[in-house]
Write a structure and sequence with these properties.
Strand content: 5-15%
Largest sheet: 6 strands, parallel
Shape: elongated
Strand order of the largest sheet: 3-2-1-4-5-6
CATH class of the largest domain: Alpha Beta
Radius of gyration: 20 Å
Number of strands: 6
Helix content: 40-55%
Order of helices and strands: HHHEHHEEHEHHHHHEHEHHH
Number of domains: 2
């Protein structure tokens, strides 16, 4: 049995009984029932993932996976491909938005090179490239099925290492010029939506650039004919190396009962792949925010996820995921630290 098959078989549904006990605990706190709204729902979901009614405060990490995309040749991004390597160097030296926000959140940043075209090695970066970027999928498959499986298994392995180090909350992020083109293609296929509906402006392209992007995706779908009933086939034909790796992180975390904080559109596409490979993984997903990318709205609806934040963000890198870590921790602190009606000597009307 392959590692991928083994992990998918090992993922179990989240623990509804733990969520019920957490709800009872929250109802005993010194507040009207349900008055903390989504924060209470978040505490219950997190408890269901950990399988305990009073989860400990977890150690945090964000996995940022980077790769280049051959479809960038079609002029679908406002930035050239070399920016992928340049931004990874920025991550490695601590100068990017994800570094700033992660320092504040006290979250470890793991940067992973899944296939950067420059091939330059950076210190403080884990290098496990599947190749120098994917092929231009307007002419054929972005990668082989074997590479897609390898990418998934790399992500699973990264999660195994983080879990062994005691990490209990994982955010996921991405970097890769033209990766919104890949995410749009994946979303169109797997959600059965029109390409135009799920394709946005990515890095800020103008109307002409967006039309080039739409046409490139339409050509890719016509050339490759990805099977919407086969997530692995779709990933190989129109996906990205970093998207494969991130889908593996989702699966690996789910197998180890670790909550996964999704970022925006790219990580949402990766989560969609993971859930199609193993539907039980959906229960381990927390949507950190709602991206302005139109395809992200489609993914959130498909996965039945309610985003915690709506800040009109579209950066990627895991920035939204790290911001939402504060809310996860806050929800757990309410469960663990807030007084009950009994301990505080406050009259409970049952309201």
């Amino acid at each position: 049995m392959t590692l991928l098959a083994e992990i998918c078989r090992s993922i179990v549904p989240v623990d509804g009984e733990a969520a019920r006990r957490t709800r009872q605990c929250l109802d005993s706190k010194t507040k009207p029932r349900g008055s903390l709204g989504v924060l209470e729902d978040l505490a219950c979901q997190t408890a269901s993932i950990y399988g305990t009614a009073a989860p400990p405060l977890p150690r945090k990490a964000v996995v940022v996976m980077a790769a280049d995309h051959g479809v960038a040749e079609e002029g679908v991004s406002a930035y050239p491909s070399e920016v992928t390597a340049q931004m990874v160097r920025n991550f490695a030296t601590g100068g990017a938005a994800i570094n700033v926000l992660s320092r504040q959140a006290e979250a470890h940043v793991l940067v992973v090179d899944m296939g950067i075209a420059s091939g330059q090695r950076q210190s403080a970066v884990s290098h496990v490239p599947l190749g120098p970027g994917t092929a231009n999928f307007t002419h054929g498959a972005a990668m082989s099925k074997e590479a897609a499986v390898r990418g998934l298994e790399i992500g699973i392995g990264m999660t195994t290492e983080l879990a062994a180090e005691g990490i209990g909350l994982i955010g996921v992020g991405d970097m890769g010029i033209a990766n919104t083109t890949s995410a749009s293609a994946l979303t169109a296929v797997l959600c059965g939506e029109a390409v135009e509906l799920v394709t946005g402006r990515g890095t800020g392209i103008d109307d002409a650039g967006r039309q080039r992007k739409i046409r490139a995706i339409e050509r890719a779908l016509a050339v490759n004919r990805p099977d919407p009933a086969d997530a692995l086939d779709t990933l190989a034909k129109v996906g990205g190396f970093e998207i494969a790796g991130l889908a593996g992180v989702v699966l690996g975390a789910s197998a180890r009962r670790i909550p996964v904080l999704l970022d925006g559109f790219i990580t949402g596409a990766a989560a969609l792949i993971a859930v199609r490979l193993c539907p039980a993984a959906r229960g381990y997903l927390i949507a950190s925010h709602r991206s302005v990318e139109p395809g992200h709205q489609v993914i959130l609806r498909e996965l039945r996820l309610r985003p915690l934040l709506d800040l009109e963000m579209r950066l990627g890198e895991g920035t939204g995921a790290v911001l939402a870590m504060y809310l996860v921790e806050a929800s757990l602190r309410i469960v663990r630290e807030m007084a009950t009606f009994t301990t505080a000597g406050v009259t409970d009307t049952g309201a």
